[in-house]
Amino acid sequence: MSRKSSSSDRLVTLATYGIGTAMGGGLLLMVGAFMIGSFVALRAKPAAAAEAPAAPAAAAPAAPAPAATPAAAATTPASPAPAAGGADLLATGQRIYSTVCIACHQPTGQGLPPMFPPLAGSDWVNVNKPDRMIRMVLHGFTGPITINGKPFTSPAPMMPPQGGALNDEQIAGVLTYVRSNFGNKAGPVTPEQVKTIREAEKARSAMWTEAEILKIPVE
């Protein structure tokens, strides 16, 4: 009887020890799992913080657009366009001057005073309208004339008419050449201007005199 009781007590003790050992081991496993989980969590937080994308920096304010350069003032006058065929007209004029006018007015435009007055710097040439000069070339000129305040009287100058020998373009060319050479600064003459005066004076055959031609306005 006592042996049976002793055996039973041992069994109970072993069972209790096993249960305790099992419980202790389970507790140790739980504690170990908790500690491992905490350690992993602590390591994950910095990594997550490192992996998190940085917040975008605030965009710098855009630089103000440069002020627009002001357009050219509307009142600025445009450059005058060159006359159509101006170079051809000058070439024609130079050719006519070299064949028809040069003997009297000379290559320099200084003429042969007192018979042939100068064209260079002449106040008859440097005027706004070429109407007097067109008439003089068309119908000729005779008699005394005052140029730049200097009278040419003896012998009286005489210029033969060229209206029958030269057409409108040739007369416009030679007058344009004279008005832009020899120090002269007058504007060009067009064939249309010559044509208009030729038509207006078609009944005239006499040469012009100073008294008559001074009545023609040039400004």
Give a concise summary.
This protein is 48% helix and 5% strand. It is mostly helical and 219 residues long. It has a domain at 86-214: Cytochrome Bc1 Complex, Chain D, domain 2 (Orthogonal Bundle).
CATH class of the domain at 86-214: Mainly Alpha
Please identify which CATH superfamily of the domain at 86-214 we are dealing with. Answer: Cytochrome c-like domain
The count of helical stretches stands at 6
Whole-angstrom Rg: 58 Å
- Low-pLDDT stretches are 1-8, 11-61, 63-82
At the third CATH level, what is the topology name of the domain at 86-214? Cytochrome Bc1 Complex, Chain D, domain 2
The fraction of residues assigned to DSSP E strands is under 5%
> Describe the biggest sheet?
2 strands, antiparallel
Helix content: 40-55%
Give a structural overview.
- With 219 residues, the protein is mainly alpha-helical.
- It has 6 helices and 4 strands, in the order αααββββααα.
- It is 48% helix and 5% strand.
- A hairpin with a 2-residue loop joins β2 (145-147) and β3 (150-152).
- The longest helix has 50 residues, at 2-51.
- It is globular.
Please render the helix and strand layout as text.
Blueprint: H1 2-51, H2 86-105, H3 131-139, E1 141-142, E2 145-147, E3 150-152, E4 158-159, H4 168-179, H5 191-200, H6 210-213
Antiparallel strand pairs: 1-4, 2-3
Helix pairs in contact: 2-4, 3-5, 4-5
Give the key terms.
single chain; membrane; mainly alpha; metal-binding; Cytochrome Bc1 Complex, Chain D, domain 2; heme; 48% helix; 219 residues; disordered N terminus
